[in-house]
């Protein structure tokens, strides 16, 4: 019987939901709880009452369900020490070399990071819609701009950023995330799925293709030849884009929960991380074989996860009021916290050996642990 977090290869779109639907919906929660206990995967903190309720509903109120909760000894961790701070309100931030950008509402702010001990605000740009996500590549910034779609901003003059071009994705949904995959730009629209763009002419971005996941496409991250889409309710869709005009779904990793919101990847280790919007559970997925992604571990943080990024063996979690948490995932079966900072953190990014963490009113720079 297929478990809820099993990864499968998908030979065609037509049989995708059939494969996932093997477990009858009426028995899903009971079987899910039983499989977790059977294989030593303890229920999430909210799950015990669901398991008990489902068991009583399925087998009668005389059913007894025992739960064993295990705790591991805490690993040594440190408190991150700020290198620099900058008064700034940001919901998203990204950087490439000496330039960074931050988005808050419909305002885009250009950051001078040439001296990481003294970051400076350069120019600002007002957009028509909310800046949901942003990625910087050289002297360009690519924005997921809600109902407007993809917006390309030139940063040749950091004091006067300019809109070079845009592409409106016509749908009832919004463009909510953006990423680079080689020379391609990927976006997700929460109604139309994955969109692949040629941006060789920044004044005229061209949409080469779109791939409808079947659910709500919440987030995207790219690798050369691959788009990784966080989809609600499925989990992680792995889409091949070597032929960008004809993307092909390589596989799906069905997440443990059904509210996958975020995805990031550590390119050097070919490891993806997906976060559930309801439980904050982070699943660790090995992509060495993209046709058969394998869950190799998970981490259950306290509180919520609003954004995440990764490099090598470290995972960075922006946890809102819970601050910034850095997780060592060298052994994905036993991830542990190595460093943290208590200041509220809405977004996190990496540039060189510096971590950028933005909260409600401050951008803070830390050395990578």
Short description:
The chain has helices at residues 16-20, 28-38, 47-59; strands at 7-9, 78-79, 82-87, 92-96, 99-104, 107-112, 120-126, 133-137, 140-144, 150-154, 162-167, 175-181, 184-189, 193-198, 206-211, 216-223, 226-232, 235-240, 248-254, 260-266, 271-276, 282-286, 294-299, 307-311, 314-318, 324-328, 336-341, 347-351, 354-358, 362-367. The chain is mostly beta strands.
What does it look like?
With 369 residues, the chain is mostly beta strands. It folds into 2 domains: 16-71, no CATH class; 78-367, Methylamine Dehydrogenase, Chain H (7 Propeller). The chain is 8% helix and 46% strand. The longest helix has 13 residues, at 47-59. It is globular.
Give me the secondary-structure topology.
Blueprint: E1 7-9, H1 16-20, H2 28-38, H3 47-59, E2 78-79, E3 82-87, E4 92-96, E5 99-104, E6 107-112, E7 120-126, E8 133-137, E9 140-144, E10 150-154, E11 162-167, E12 175-181, E13 184-189, E14 193-198, E15 206-211, E16 216-223, E17 226-232, E18 235-240, E19 248-254, E20 260-266, E21 271-276, E22 282-286, E23 294-299, E24 307-311, E25 314-318, E26 324-328, E27 336-341, E28 347-351, E29 354-358, E30 362-367
Parallel strand pairs: 2-27
Antiparallel strand pairs: 1-19, 3-30, 4-5, 5-6, 6-7, 8-9, 9-10, 10-11, 12-13, 13-14, 14-15, 16-17, 17-18, 18-19, 20-21, 21-22, 22-23, 24-25, 25-26, 26-27, 28-29, 29-30
């Amino acid at each position: 019987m297929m478990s809820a977090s099993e990864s499968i290869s998908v030979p065609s779109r037509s049989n995708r939901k059939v494969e996932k639907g093997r477990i009858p919906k009426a028995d899903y929660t009971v079987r899910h709880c039983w499989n977790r206990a059977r294989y030593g995967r303890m229920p999430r903190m909210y799950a015990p009452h669901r398991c008990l309720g489902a068991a009583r509903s399925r087998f009668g109120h005389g059913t007894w369900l025992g739960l064993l909760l295990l705790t591991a000894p805490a690993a040594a961790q440190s408190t991150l020490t700020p290198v620099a701070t900058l008064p700034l309100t940001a919901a998203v931030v990204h950087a490439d070399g000496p330039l960074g950008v931050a988005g808050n509402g419909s305002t885009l702010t250009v950051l001078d990071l040439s001296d990481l001990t003294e970051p400076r605000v350069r120019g600002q740009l007002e957009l028509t819609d909310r800046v949901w996500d942003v990625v910087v590549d050289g002297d360009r910034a690519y924005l997921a701009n809600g109902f407007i779609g993809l917006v390309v901003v030139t940063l040749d003059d950091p004091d006067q950023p300019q809109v070079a071009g845009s592409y409106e994705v016509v749908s009832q949904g919004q463009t909510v995330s953006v990423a680079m995959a080689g020379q391609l730009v990927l976006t997700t629209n929460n109604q139309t799925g994955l969109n692949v763009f040629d941006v060789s002419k920044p004044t005229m971005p061209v949409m080469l293709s779109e791939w409808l996941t079947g659910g709500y496409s919440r987030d995207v991250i790219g690798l050369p030849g691959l788009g990784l889409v966080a989809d609600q309710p499925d989990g992680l869709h792995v889409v091949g884009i070597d032929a960008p005009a004809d993307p092909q779904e390589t596989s799906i990793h069905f997440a443990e929960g059904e509210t996958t919101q975020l995805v990031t990847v550590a390119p050097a280790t070919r490891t993806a991380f997906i976060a559930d919007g309801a439980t904050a559970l982070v699943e660790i997925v090995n992509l060495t074989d993209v046709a058969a992604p394998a869950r190799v571990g998970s981490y259950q943080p306290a509180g919520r996860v609003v954004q995440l990024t990764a490099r090598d063996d470290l995972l960075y979690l922006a946890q809102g009021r819970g601050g910034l948490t850095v997780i060592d995932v060298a052994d994905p079966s036993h991830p542990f916290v190595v460093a943290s900072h208590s200041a509220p953190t809405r977004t996190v990014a990496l540039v060189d050996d510096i971590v950028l963490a933005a909260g409600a009113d401050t951008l803070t720079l830390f050395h990578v642990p």
